[in-house]
Description:
Blueprint: H1 6-14, E1 26-32, E2 35-41, H2 54-72, E3 76-82, E4 92-101, H3 131-141, E5 145-150, H4 153-171, H5 174-183, E6 184-185, E7 190-191, E8 195-196, H6 204-214, H7 218-228, H8 231-243, E9 247-253, H9 260-279, E10 282-286, H10 289-298, H11 307-324, E11 331-339, E12 346-347
Amino acid sequence: MSAPRIIEQILDLARWAPSGDNVQTHRFEILDEQHVRIHASDTSAHCVYDLDGHASQIAFGALLETMAIAASEHGWRMDFTRQQRAPAFDSELIFDVAFTPQPGLQPDVLIPSIAVRAVQRRAMRTRPLSPAEKQAMEAAAGPGYRIRWLETPGERWQAAQLMFHNAKLRLTMPEAFEVHRRIIHWGVSHSEDRVPDQALGVDALTLRLMKWAMSSNWGRMATMNTLFGTWLPRLQMDLLPGLLCGAHFVLQARQPLRSIDDHVAAGRAVQRFWLTLTRLGLFMQPEMTPLIFARYIAEGRPFTREAAVQARAERLRPQAVELMGGENANAVFIGRLGAGPAPAARAVRKPLAELMLR
């Protein structure tokens, strides 16, 4: 068997880029030894969390940044262009990527962090972040972004409460139920194409109840919510983890994100931030639902057929806006982070062969 080509080695490492719910909706098309075309589809048509495809666009930006970092291992620079197409094709993006040998280009220090970067949904250590750690992460995000840190016990409590209350939205709306039922891989600690149930951050009893409720239709889940409430999963997945971490953070853009390309660029910043904290021995969990639902409400866009859920989101919006730093904060990404331990269960990735355009 011949050794993998350099371009295949780059793609094999780049496939470890973050992908929302581990859906990996991108496909690679190798055009020649130094050119790749990426066919990237968003999930806005069937995922309530992918409002206008922005979450997917950020993920595609993270993928492109990972490709650039991976290419540096071979002394190659990465450049890309997005094909300009009619707005009707905004959910189907095409990126043309070119690699160019660049003498003197050193391997990026973030390369070793690419494959070990993972989401930690369970409790982390509560030790404060050091000034050096925060400075490194702020520098990684780049000059177009700033970080709002929420790290005092009071700020972490405020964030944890918001996540706890916001979680009731996703657990009591049928639109989110359909997403969760598709993306959870039951009975595993690692999954190539979904989120393993053992990575969700709940105990065995709660996991069994969730699996039972999701093995049928929305009616069964609604019945369970009526009989048992939603406090147990929210306590384990949102409130306690929100308290047991080093800090919450909000990545803010210095200018509003107005276009697909703006969100792709933000995704590149998110990935450098995430890989940098990984290199520092820290872990992170995205906390995007307050940002997403607050935007639905701000733009007067219904996101559920359940009127009570929509009304609850309206009541929570002021708290979400305060957390994000105000109406004009240009929040791009929200999460919590802290020192270990490393997650024992995690999403992995499809083999490169399955990510090639067929």
